[in-house]
Amino acid sequence: MSSPALVVFRKELRDTLRDRRTLIAMVVVPLLLFPLLMVGMAKFSQSRAAEARDKTLAVAVADAEAGAGRGSGLADFLRHEPGLEITEVQDVMALPERVRTEELDAAIVIPAGYAAAVAAHQPAPLQLLHKSSDDFDIPRTRLEQTLARFEQKLLEERLRGLGIEPRSIDPLDIQRTDVVSSRELFGKLLGGLLPYMFIIFCFTGGMYPAIDLAAGEKERGTLETLLSSPASRLQITLGKFAVVTLTGFTSALLATVGMYVSVQSVSGIPPAVLAAVQSVLAPGTIALVLALLLPLSVFFAGLLLMLSLYARSYKEAMSIISPLMIVVVVPAAIALAPGVRLGVATALVPVLNVSLATREIIAGTAEPLHLALVFASLLLLAAGSMVACARWFSREDIVFRS
User: Where in the numbering of this chain does the ABC-2 type transporter transmembrane domain appear (predicted)?
Assistant: First the structure.
């Protein structure tokens, strides 16, 4: 960078760092968002899950054959299960409403014909009424596990009545071995969300400086003063361009730091899981991800500066650039869809290629050829963005548009 361009860069960077909105978007949000989100969500989820597991479930059992002396025995079985409060009822019609209003956590309806089906060694009908909840559906899962134990008890009684040892109906003892590495497993899980967040921070981190350095200076009347300085249009462009690129990239970098801090701050993570997450956040992996984000930051900087320079005022620039967030988010969100993988075609699609490549890098399954294509396409995109931005600054009808 030539000396006048460096002077412009220092001047614009100093002005940018004085802007409170820029500092919040570039530093505060990415640095604190990950720790607050991950620690808060982990604590809340653990609390809710523990509450749902420890809660005593109110369950009604309506046995149509209980009065005839042919009861199923299910109610007695459930009474001996921990964490269940069993009530036997006769009014079956009221049960759905009582479950819907959460007066009951669940209800079990045993219709007529149950005992006959059991005696005939046929599947016996049973109806479970429940309401899906936001407690990870733990109450339903707990009750289904209890019913599975009752079913196993009936099966063993049926087999022994036939003179068959229950173990003899299991001809195979399958030993399952998952060959996926812990890094690949957790990388696929984390790799879907992290690039989505990084890309958004790259964009928003450069958005406010870009608006202020072009449309903002137009509105304040300081752009003309800068253009009358000894620095050429190209040097001014490079100085502003470098500031916007730096702020966008720094925002993504700070988001990475915040993510690492948040992982270290969350308590209760199993050691195996923590080791896998730390392997995902290894310095080499993060360095490669940041290397992808650098040319993307350059591309965003050129695009944002061009749109900001076209606007007549700060407010107009915001109205033009803000909807662009959707254009950035959609390709990043597509990478979250199952079955979307990094290939020759997707490696050439802007933003989408960064999301997919980041996911593969984090999982440790990236193909060198695909990564090379991603880097090549991003470098071409960044170069084109710089050239287009420089030409945009040379047009009088754009710079002095009013």
Answer: 21-383
